[in-house]
């Protein structure tokens, strides 16, 4: 398994997709922090830290998960990987673990950038720096939500085996959920928005459920033959 993890991390480091995704995320965060910054009201600024870092990182990480799971099918490199790795589910697990690690780092850095900007504007006391429990919950919600979205992306990539198809499904699905009140903030693509809000519990629960279901389907899907 260690060998497979190293192989997947090497693939992420040496292909342009992950670097382009991370660069775009970093540029977006830095631009918004520099131009917009935190909100004028300290209370609103505190409650906006999670959504600012989580949403702007989580959905790009979802797309990164799709790329990580689907790119081997696009370039046909999945065939030698499966021939040399005992167990297709092990390949999926390694991809999911590597994407989750990248998502953890990206979410932690993004949250730190937004927190630092808010502290600079409103001071540490307003941003709860004297309350480690609040900061721990802030990072836990942000990192947890981003990791769940990245794993949802891995599952989609493994199920569809085509990044372009997944890239089309994600925005269409998000729009469809947004305009349908019963599905809004409860579906797989919009539950992440609620998961980063001031009351993340219900959204996180739905996002976790959808991610678990998608991963379960992916585990079954990877057993089918590689014919595309």
If you had to describe this structure to a student in words, what would you say it looks like?
This protein has 228 residues and is an all-alpha fold. The chain is 79% helix and 0% strand. It contains nine helices and no strands. It has helices at residues 2-14, 16-35, 42-74, 78-84, 88-122, 132-160, 163-179, 191-195, 201-221. α2 (16-35) packs parallel to α5. The longest helix is centred in the middle third of the chain and has 35 residues, at 88-122. It is globular. The mean pLDDT is 85.
Low-confidence stretches: none
Shape: globular
SSE string: HHHHHHHHH
Could you report the average pLDDT, rounded to the nearest whole number? 85
Transmembrane segments: 20-40, 52-70, 91-116, 136-156, 163-183, 203-223
Keywords: Membrane, Transmembrane, Transmembrane helix
Protein name: ABC transporter permease
Observed structural traits:
transmembrane; mainly alpha; globular; 9 helices; 228 residues
Short description:
This protein has 228 residues and is an all-alpha fold. The chain has helices at residues 2-14, 16-35, 42-74, 78-84, 88-122, 132-160, 163-179, 191-195, 201-221.
Question: How do the helices and strands line up, and which of them pair or pack?
Answer:
Layout (H helix, E strand, L loop, with lengths): L1 H13 L1 H20 L6 H33 L3 H7 L3 H35 L9 H29 L2 H17 L11 H5 L5 H21 L7
Helix pairs in contact: 1-5, 2-3, 2-5, 3-5, 3-6, 5-6, 6-9
